[in-house]
Write a structure and sequence with these properties.
Radius of gyration: 22 Å
Shape: globular
Number of helices: 14
CATH architecture: Alpha-Beta Barrel
Helix content: 25-40%
Strand content: 15-25%
Structural class: alpha/beta
Number of strands: 19
Oligomer: single chain
CATH topology: TIM Barrel
Length: about 500
């Protein structure tokens, strides 16, 4: 309901179709903004004295997307990556970037305590993001587990990550030098026992901070190193397989399913109540996740899927440019992901954006060898347009899209004043024309990556404006103003009283 007042709005969006989560309606309204918050929502708001007016002309207004899974600073210096990739995020209607970060090789290329590393991460990030941002941290060594409570209390880091395949596998392949890769001492082991202790650390934190018990969580990349190592050797001998098909076979879906089961039982054993199963890529992984939810109903599971795994299959012409962990799968797996998404069994859609420039992704002479290419690619700039395009023809509602891209991750990760367009909430808004076609071209992306595995894909929707806390940061292909992104110390903000 609009708030009755004569004070002018700083920004007024007129004649937009409001796509809110938790409803089945998409009414035509105006949105009035004062300062950084939504001040009024309703038809016919008074435009007198408004600082700026955006004529919506019937476009869709979504709550700003929360890209719950990004990797900023993995392949390029953090301070540089933040600038370009947060611009790409704004291009995709994203207003909050949640970034996974760890110690070890890549990222800062440093080991040691987060008490030393994280203030440096925050310093490098300051005034470099065009969207709001937060970090999920991975406890890589035993001392990091002991730091979890202080990270919550001092820095508002309420989400932590486990890379299950790092037990004997590197970022790109089999490795016998995991301690060097993770930069941990000879007495340290990154294994199932360590994963258990991370979960116990999170459980202790939930007990110490009961007011945050629903917002402290552990996320897992679910693949098992032993299966990956064995099947990579098998695939290397099979000359009938190449490209993305070979990579999927080398990291088979049942490895995902097995890891999901291990993760779920550890959560049960440790009473770690909030578990996020990341970037589920296959039928077997999703079925394992649903089975574990039935087996352990007291665990609050969340299931994530990426726009890449929803849009691409392993016959994509992108070939090595679409290499990612877990791999791009078969068309049958893709359609099963959509089936479970439409059934309400997946909780949010993200990008897993990791800008990997072409010269690093596929060095000269390696473009045909999938195992030489680096893992990961960008895609945050297509998050809303791609989901709207593919979801619309499958019957995915605008309101459900708002849940999948904004409300659900906001609630899970402690962003209390984000995830909706309502009075008192942050004025984070993505204005989308759902009937403006575009063909994906890397040259049009604001990312520094220089290519995209989505090249040539025809999208039927386009973000025309992105508003961050009341300021227009992207409009009609262009970034507006300086970097305005704010570090989100969680819990961040508070929900409106109404």
């Amino acid at each position: 309901m609009p708030v009755s007042t004569t004070v002018p709005y700083d920004l007024l969006l007129r004649n937009v179709r409001l796509a809110r989560p938790g409803t089945n309606e998409v009414p035509v309204v105006d949105i009035g903004v004062r300062g950084e918050r939504v001040a009024a929502v309703g038809p016919g708001l008074d435009p007198s004295g408004a600082g700026a007016i955006i004529e919506g002309r019937g476009q869709l207004a979504f709550p700003g997307a929360i890209d719950a899974h990004m990797h900023t600073g993995i392949y390029s210096p953090l301070q540089d990556d933040a600038l370009t990739e947060s611009q790409a995020a704004a291009q995709g209607g994203v207003t909050s970037s949640l970034n996974y970060f760890r110690s070890g090789q890549y990222y800062l290329n440093e080991g040691g305590p987060y008490a030393r590393l994280f203030p440096r991460i925050l310093e490098l990030s300051n005034e470099r993001f065009y969207v709001d941002y937060a970090y999920h941290l991975a406890p890589i060594e035993s001392a990091h587990v002991a730091e979890m409570e202080s990270l919550i209390e001092k820095h508002g880091v309420t989400s932590f990550k486990i890379f299950m395949f790092y037990g004997g596998y590197g970022l790109h392949g089999a490795s016998g030098q995991q301690r060097e890769f993770l930069m941990i001492g000879p007495e340290e082991n990154y294994d199932i026992a360590h994963f258990e202790f991370v979960m116990r650390g999170a459980q202790r934190a939930m007990e110490r901070f009961p007011q945050l018990c629903e917002e402290i969580s552990v996320s897992l990349h679910c693949e098992t190193a032993e299966i990956l190592n064995a099947y990579t050797r098998i695939v290397a001998r099979d000359k009938s397989l190449s490209g993305l098909r070979a990579y999927s076979a080398a990291r088979p879906p049942h490895s995902e399913g097995l890891a999901v089961c291990i993760a779920a039982y550890l959560a049960h054993e440790t009473r770690c109540m909030n578990i996020n199963l990341l970037h589920l890529s296959s039928r077997k992984a999703v079925q394992a996740a649903l089975t574990m939810a039935d087996a352990f109903p007291h665990i609050n599971f969340r299931r994530e899927v990426t726009v890449g795994h929803l849009m691409l299959d392993y016959d994509s012409p992108a070939a090595a440019l679409a290499k990612v962990n877990p791999p791009i799968r078969s068309r049958e797996d893709v359609e099963y992901l959509w089936e479970t998404l439409l059934a309400g069994k997946l909780d949010w859609v993200c990008s897993d954006h990791a800008c990997c420039r072409h010269e690093l992704k596929a060095p000269a002479g390696s473009s045909k060898d999938i195992f030489l290419a680096k893992a990961g690619f960008g895609g945050t700039e297509y998050l809303l347009p791609a989901l709207i395009t593919a979801g619309r023809r499958r019957g995915l509602s605008w309101n459900r899209i708002a849940e999948l891209t904004s409300r659900n991750p906001a609630r899970r990760f402690g962003l209390r004043s984000k995830g909706d367009i309502a009075v008192g909430m942050d004025a984070d808004i993505a204005l989308v024309n759902p009937d403006r076609s575009q063909v994906v071209r890397a040259a049009d992306s604001l990312s520094a990556q220089g290519y995209t595995p989505f090249e040539g894909l025809e999208l039927t929707a386009q973000v025309t404006a992105t508003v961050l806390r009341g300021s227009v940061i992207y409009e009609n292909g262009n970034i507006k103003g300086p970097p305005r992104g704010r570090y989100l110390h969680r819990p961040y903000g508070s929900s409106p009283a109404t």
